[in-house]
Amino acid sequence: MKNPYLPYPVRIEETVIETEDRNIKSFKLAFLKEEDCKAFDYTPGQFAQLSVTGKGEIPIGIASSPTEGDHLLFTVNKMGVVTTALHNLSEGSIMGVRGPLGNSYPFDKMKGKDVTIIGGGYAFTTLRSTIVYMLDGKNRADFGKITLIYGARTPGMLLYKETLEEWSKRDDISYNVTVDRDAPGWTGRVGFVPAVTEQVAPSSENAIAVICGPPIMIKFTLPVMVKLGFTPEQTITSLENRMKCGIGICGRCNVGPEYVCKDGPVFSMAQLKEMPQEY
Amino acid sequence: MEYMRLNKKNLAAFIEELKQKCEVWGPVKEGDQVKFAPVSNVSDVDLEQFKNTTMSPKEIFFPQSEIMLSFKREGEGANIYRDEQSVPSKKAIFGIRPCDARAFRILDMIFKNDQFADNYWLTKRDAVTLVGLGCKEPCSTCFCTSVNSHPFDETGLDVMVTDLGEHYLLRVLTKKGRELLAGSHVLREPSEANIEAYKTVRKNAEDAMTVQFGTDKVNGKTVLELFNEDYWQRISEPCLNCSTCSYVCPTCHCFDIQDEVFREGGQRIRNWESCMSWIFTVHATGHNPRPGKKERVRQRFMHKFKYIPMKRDGEIGCVGCGRCVTMCPVNIDVREVVKQMNS
Predict the structure, then answer these.
(1) 0.90 exceeded by pTM
(2) What confidence tier does B264 reach under pLDDT thresholds 50, 70, 90?
(3) What are the beta bridge partners of residue B190?
(4) How far out from the chain centre does Cα B38 lie?
(5) Residue A139 touches partner B, C-beta closer than 8 Å
(6) Do residues B202 and B221 both lie within one domain?
(7) Which of A1, A9, A255 has its CB closest to that of B80?
(8) Which helix (H) or strand (E) holds B179?
(9) Between A79, A257, A274, which is nearest B284 by CB?
(10) Are A257 and B110 inside 8 Å of each other by CB?
(11) What is the maximum alpha-carbon separation in chain A?
């Protein structure tokens, strides 16, 4: 019988320290077995459980896009037991990946519409996946105007600097990357994400907005979205809760009747309105 | 419906017959407790005095601690998790109470959802034939009739046994049940009078179990209406968050997964866990979405009486066995809680 708890073995191909505080690291992973790679069929917004033997598992959003090929990318903030162990692994190490898990961003609803992506801090991983996916040659025509608003405390805390650089040169994405305060050498926008969102003012007509970031950013961005005319149905976010099984059984990540791991992590603000705030 | 009759004098011979086919488990006395265990000697099983086991029999399929995977940390194949599923032995479980069998059916729905199937639960479950024992005399803490069940509920059972004094009447409910009983030399065709007697015993038991509360208003209210009620503070006040209710409960199924290391290798293990514990939901950042006992006590009752019914076609996540009522050290009574939820 198929075992949904058995991780696929993967090799760490490359690690990148993403931020100036050296606390956030990206891991590029390659499957050891061809059949596992084929079985791992994912859509942006999904996550996976990363395993380090002897330490355990942690749920992490998938930062790569399926359009980028066979490798997977995960960006991990060093925080607890498993993430610390993961940060200590070197290139070439073997670890485990279990997934893909959870739902994804609602691409069926996003097709044919303008898409605004609003991110803050290190909650930008599955948003990276989403943008790469939408900008891919095969998919770009499926979406209207794509607007990116992404903020970090300092330029050194922005993730995926090379990818951001590429996007900034494209004419098919409105690129708005901001930092909280002016910094030496920074020539881009300065200001908090809610204020920048108000300035950029993406249209809510035939549009979907996806917002991920720290709670404080979401709290102040949501009223701006309402002002811009985005309904709760048009506003999408992704939740996190402590998880173990990742498949809707072990019972801890629920928010009301919904399991973040299986029924989420992606929910619309309309759904969240009906659910208790246990996240 | 097929019926068979077993003279109580032949119980030992019957168990021996079953043992030729598979392992036979029954309610066996262990110290001052009764638990389901392999029946080595039929005299260890006292069905006359048996009410129910102290712990729920869920551990047969969902052990308190279970090895899921293993790994080596050095040498060839290091750091690759290996599957440790074993092929479970075939078992007949004799004397299971209808409430506990119904709980297995509820857990079947939880361990196999619309997308994933928990192989550890399912393989053990598939290997078992459940022979139930109808409840002639419910305990004072039982409330199965208030949660869509009754003392002769056949949900989840393969055979239902009814005590008729001198005889047992066996009602065959599934193909698995028929296969278990096939070829027996001690089972007899029951008389009409036996079947009538069974119906009377059943009716008397059902009549004796009056419905103590309804759940209609719980179903009618929204999640947030119930969630935001003031009574959760009062209900949770005496709770110690000791988790006893979860561990004795036949439908509580939450678990933790941990890696354990021993020398060059290790194992990934799952252990029972409880929503009563703060660590159950705490994030790595220290943020806890259910920070206090009010939130945790509310979660346990909401899960059983609101969330599970919403997600599983109205099935209530409680079978009325009353173990939590008996075992709670501060006398939190689920019946009183649901009465408030349904007010």
Answers:
(1) yes
(2) confident
(3) none
(4) 18
(5) no
(6) no
(7) A9
(8) helix B175-181
(9) A79
(10) no
(11) 58
